């Protein structure tokens, strides 16, 4: 995995030792995708999963009226599409690349064999799923308890805690995150998200540039998200 990126916190590969990681990666077929390519499409039948080795993807669902909901962002080390593949379900969400992405594709049979033969991989999968359940629970609480500006702040705060890269001016989010992605995640309009980001910039809590956000004051951002 010399050419791949360091697995992100909470991902499947992050929980694995080198031997199990290499076994899993070598078990499947390496595939590369360009920017904005669809890996899987909501509603399709399925028999495979992807392990992301480098780059970022967005997982999203589309409602009957055409509204898009951002379910999650997934990066290096994450496995995506595993629930549908393991259960034989139709895809409940689509997965699209945000930038060039390198993956390993495994069939559901290959993944099941790996989980049976490698207990450490099975345990790592459980831990990744637990992280995702906690992520989903936090999102539900945010929708019920916070206004739009607070939901934006809470979302950025959690991304910074999980994936922020320390830089001289703060914690940088290196995934290519757009205002529309944030809006689709927090259940708000793009205009409302733009106003929220502007307010955070004016307070010097964050800085933004094209698809790049730096959390200048992480503690203040977290406090703002949970202020009454």
CATH topology of the largest domain: Jelly Rolls
Helical amount: 40-55%
Shape: globular
Q: Count the domains.
A: 2
The rounded distance between the terminal residues' Cα atoms is 46 Å
Please report the number of helical segments: 8
Average pLDDT rating? 91
Largest sheet, order of strands side by side? 1-8-3-6
Helix-strand makeup class = alpha+beta
What is the tally of beta strands? 12
Question: What's the CATH class label of the largest domain?
Answer: Mainly Beta
Q: Return the string of H and E elements.
A: HEEEEEEHEEHHHEEHHEEH
Largest sheet, if any?
Answer: 4 strands, antiparallel
Uncertain parts: none
Strand coverage percent:
15-25%
Please identify, by name, the CATH architecture of the largest domain: Sandwich
**What is the C-alpha radius of gyration, as a whole number of Å?**
18 Å
The CATH superfamily label of the largest domain reads Jelly Rolls
